[in-house]
Each structure stands twice: as structure tokens, then as C-alpha cells.
Specification:
This protein has 354 residues and is α+β, with helices and mostly antiparallel strands. Helices cover 24% and strands 35% of the residues. The chain is elongated.
């Protein structure tokens, strides 16, 4: 196991900069997820850690070693890709053992490692089979096992669940989380799926256009997004974001008026954010009139899209069966759940505690 340090790591392809000066320390045994939309630089950063992409500038250290110029085979890392990349003509046992055999490891030690990995991943009954005889989830477990038998300092996982259906992704998330708890090795995981990031990570690195937007624990980035991009990217359904201005302690957008916590130091043009589950139901007399437009029944919860003061809002509440399009209900904006962002920079504005 080892700490990973990225010091002003940059990647450019000619005049196009894909990653802009990333500074990050991944602690020994930590599970860090790189999250962001396609083209944000997350996979490129992972591939630079792996040695599959040359670093244009900066330094990468794994443990005490500077690995910036080392070949992938010399970094003691193991990588799991979106494509399982299994040998179709080899048995599962031979797929797991192949990398160790190439390193001329003693056959008895190879067998110990393969059997241990198979037990951890529930593959004992499949070792004699070929990949075509396995399901997608089982093949992904074999890919994880092939990395596990190497006993690396670092696991690198590049969107490993993207080829699986929704039910299998949930199951494999649980498998990966349990595997991390069992082996305690540092893991760096790339995904565009925020649910994977929120459920797996000790910390999330959110990226956009090659820049790191925020680094923090899942609930930290959820509760205190650093800017408008993070606020809109993290959360499903996404945060309500309304453009307006601050006047005399009120947020004003069209006919919508929302009281801000007393002492909030903000003025001028801002964006107000509130998560759909934080809007509270109340009487129209005590709140803001909200007109129901679209109702989505999610089972235990109801998601409603509508309008308040001319602004589009989403509300997520415990199941309600009685709403209908065109109906008017009352909603309240709890002061403790409000987020403010500067319209010009997009950066978070701290609000006073109510």
C-alpha cells in the first residue's frame, strides 16, 4: 500500500491542454473517485498515474518513489478497465494466473493467490470455465481478481461498471466497496456516474474541462458545493438553481421572494440553489404558491416539477398520491438549506447560519 501524490500534473496534446496542474494527495488506503462529464480529464489523469500517458509537466509519486518517468510495469499498480480484456481461450484460473506466470512467480504461490482472490470474489466454482460461460458481472469480478492477485500498491479502475445493467452495477458497487474494506489498498476510480462516486468514495475529485472543481467527502460536496457547476452536477434529481438578485435580505427573481438568513453578506446578481428534497410543503398562506405541472411517482417518493413565482422548480417528497397537474400547493424555502452563488464567477457565497 502507498500514498499517491500528484504535484502540478499537467497534460497537453499539442496546443490543447487536457489536464491543468492537478495537485492531489491520495492517502494510503484511501478510496478516491474522479468524477465529471465526458472530456473533463478524469481518465487522462488516471492514465498518467498508471503510466499509460506521458506527463507533460509535474510529478507523480507513489509512496517514496518518483514514478513520473517509470514504465507502467515498474509502478506496482493494477488497472481494471471498462473492457474486461479477458483471454477468451483461457480458463478463469488461467486468466487470473496469467500475469503472475509472466513474472515467473513460483506456481505454488500463484495458486495461493488465485485461490484467495477467487474466494474473496465468489469465483471458486467458475475457475474451470471460459469467459464466454460467465455473465457480465462475473467477468467483471474476474477482471478485479486479475488485479487483486498482483497485490499492488494501488488499484486503478477506469469506469469498470459502464458495460453492466443497472441491477448489476448496484451489486458490483457493493463488491468493490467490500473488496476495498477487505484489502485496504489505495483505490483510484474514474466514473461519470455520481451515484457510484457518492456510494464508493472516501473523497471525490470533481473535474471539468481539465480543472479540479472541488475535492471533498461525498456529503461535503453534496452539502457545500464549491460552485455552480458542482451544485448542478452532484445530486439526482439535480439542485434547483434560480438566477436573481439580493435586495434587503431577500432573494428576488421575478415575483419570487425568498428570505435569506439574517446577516448573509451578499448583494447584486446571484444564483439561489436548493435541493428538491429540501423544499418543504406548507400552506399557501405560510409559503410560496407552487403550481404542479408534471408528477413522477418513484414508489416511496414523489418528484413534482412545477412553477413558483414564474420560476421552474423540482420538489421531491415522501409519496403523495393526491396531486394533479394544475393544482396549487404551498412550499417553503428553509433558510438552513439555501445555497448562494455569485453569478459572475459561479463561486459559492457563504450564508449566515439561521
Amino acid at each position: 500500500m502507498a500514498e499517491i501524490r500528484l504535484e502540478q500534473v499537467r497534460k497537453a496534446y499539442g496546443g490543447v491542454v487536457a489536464v491543468h496542474g492537478v495537485d492531489l494527495t491520495i492517502r494510503d488506503g484511501e478510496f478516491v473517485v474522479f468524477l465529471g462529464p465526458s472530456g473533463c480529464g478524469k481518465s487522462t489523469t488516471l492514465r498518467m498515474i498508471a503510466g499509460l500517458e506521458e506527463v507533460t509537466a509535474g510529478t507523480i509519486r507513489i509512496g517514496a518513489r518518483d514514478v513520473t518517468e517509470l514504465e507502467p510495469k515498474d509502478r506496482n499498480i493494477a488497472m481494471v478497465f471498462q473492457n474486461y480484456a479477458l483471454y477468451p481461450h483461457k480458463t478463469i484460473y488461467d486468466n487470473l494466473a496469467f500475469g503472475l506466470r509472466m513474472r515467473k512467480m513460483d506456481p505454488a504461490e500463484i495458486d495461493v493467490r488465485v485461490q484467495k482472490a477467487a474466494r474473496m470474489l465468489g469465483l471458486e466454482d467458475y475457475l474451470a470455465r471460459k469467459p464466454k460461460q460467465l455473465s457480465g458481472g462475473q467477468m467483471q469480478r474476474v477482471a478485479l481478481g486479475r488485479a487483486l492477485v498482483r497485490e499492488p500498491d494501488v488499484f486503478l479502475l477506469d469506469e469498470p461498471l459502464s458495460n453492466l445493467d443497472a441491477k448489476l452495477r448496484v451489486r458490483m458497487r457493493e463488491e468493490i466497496a467490500r473488496l476495498h474494506q477487505d484489502v485496504g489498498t489505495s483505490m483510484v476510480y474514474v466514473t461519470h456516474d455520481q451515484v457510484e462516486a457518492m456510494t464508493l468514495a472516501n473523497r471525490i475529485v470533481i473535474m471539468r474541462d481539465g480543472h479540479v472543481q472541488q475535492i471533498g467527502a461525498p456529503l461535503e460536496v453534496y452539502d457545500r458545493p464549491a460552485n455552480l457547476f458542482v451544485a448542478g452536477f452532484i445530486g439526482s434529481p439535480e439542485m434547483n438553481l434560480i438566477e436573481g438578485r439580493v435586495e434587503n435580505g431577500l432573494f428576488v427573481a421575478g415575483s419570487l421572494r425568498v428570505a435569506l438568513p439574517a446577516g448573509t453578506q451578499a448583494s447584486g446578481d446571484v444564483a439561489l440553489g436548493i435541493r428538491p428534497e429540501h423544499l418543504a410543503l406548507t400552506s399557501e398562506a405560510d409559503g410560496v404558491a407552487f403550481t404542479v405541472r408534471v408528477i413522477e411517482q418513484l414508489g416511496a417518493q414523489t418528484l413534482c416539477v412545477g412553477e413558483a413565482g414564474g420560476e421552474r422548480l423540482r420538489i421531491l417528497v415522501d409519496r403523495v398520491d393526491s396531486w394533479s397537474p394544475g393544482q396549487s400547493i404551498g412550499v417553503r424555502f428553509p433558510a438552513a438549506k439555501l445555497h448562494l452563488f455569485a453569478k459572475s464567477s459561479g463561486q459559492r457565497i457563504e450564508t449566515a447560519k439561521p
